[in-house]
Amino acid sequence: MTPAAQLGWRTGLISLVIFGCLLLVWHLATAPGQSVASAGAGAASAATSAAEDEYAKLMGKGSSSPVKTSGFPGLAQMGQTIRKELAHPFYDNGPNDKGIGIQLGYSLARVGLGFAIAAVVAIPLGFLLGMSPLMQRALNPFIQILKPISPLAWMPLALYTIKDSSISGIFVIFICSVWPMLMNTAFGVASVRRDWLNAAKTLEVKPLRKAFLVILPAAAPTILTGMRISMGIAWLVIVAAEMLVGGTGIGYYVWNEWNNLSLTSVIFAILLIGVTGMLLDLVFARLQKLVTYTE
């Protein structure tokens, strides 16, 4: 077995042990007590549970829904919720009761569209700033003023002007994605070795051909780094944005399930957000590896 393979096995084993320890701590922390007091409170707890089952029915959920009764949910409740959500991820019973697959799809679509628009704007503009010190100095004050503004601060203006909550969410994703891509593209283009640019100039390569065949491959790793950072920020912001605008999306799902007192569904959505974010980051890490070169 090669050293790299051995390292991979050890890393995976340590990760599994840590994961098992976390589950054990969770189980011990949420295990029901066997004290006399807790037994005496059983009748009251049963009455509360019946009332909450009735509330769950009114909210369009079955009486067997794992509605939080008291304390933090245990692993059995989480397993029940995960099994139920993954069994029918694309059901649609109306505006406030959609499957987790549909909600996740809405969020991914908003992030993908806002991110794509940001790439169309940021990468050409970054090329311009990287190739022209004059334009970089002229636009730098505006960038430095706009860049620190929180994306969510734009939400009231977006809702007022666009008057559509879904498009406003896409606009917020665009705003938060554009700056890392713009700055990294400008830095990558400006950092291209002068030897390569001088060689292209000596060979009388036309500007457009030089941009695509010399500058773009040289700056691609830095550009992909900016795109990877932008995607991470966009996935962070979409949850908060959807909590504000409501309607659909994984952020709205979290807020809606909290209003339904379904803490297990909230935890399930949080785990799903984390796994999805990890997969998105892995995609960009793989793309970054493809364009990375050694001199």
TrEMBL record:
Pfam families hit by this protein: BPD_transp_1 (PF00528)
Keyword Ion transport: yes
UniProt keyword Hydrolase present: no
Keyword terms, alphabetized: Cell inner membrane, Cell membrane, Ion transport, Membrane, Transmembrane, Transmembrane helix, Transport
Residue ranges of every copy of the ABC transmembrane type-1 domain listed in the record: 104-284
GO biological process: alkanesulfonate transmembrane transport; monoatomic ion transport
Protein's membrane topology: Multi-pass membrane protein
Recorded superkingdom: Bacteria
SUPFAM superfamilies in the cross-refs: MetI-like (SSF161098)
Transmembrane segments: 111-130, 142-162, 168-190, 211-227, 233-254, 266-285
Location(s) in or outside the cell: Cell inner membrane; Cell membrane
InterPro entries assigned to the protein according to its UniProt record, in alphabetical order: MetI-like, MetI-like_sf, NtrB
Principal subcellular localisation of the protein: membrane
GO cellular component: plasma membrane
Recorded GO MF terms: nitrate transmembrane transporter activity
CDD domains linked: TM_PBP2
Entries under NCBIfam families matching the protein: ntrB (TIGR01183)
Similarity comment: Belongs to the binding-protein-dependent transport system permease family.
Protein's name according to its UniProt entry: Nitrate ABC transporter, inner membrane subunit
Species, as recorded: Verminephrobacter eiseniae (strain EF01-2)
Taxonomic path: Bacteria, Pseudomonadati, Pseudomonadota, Betaproteobacteria, Burkholderiales
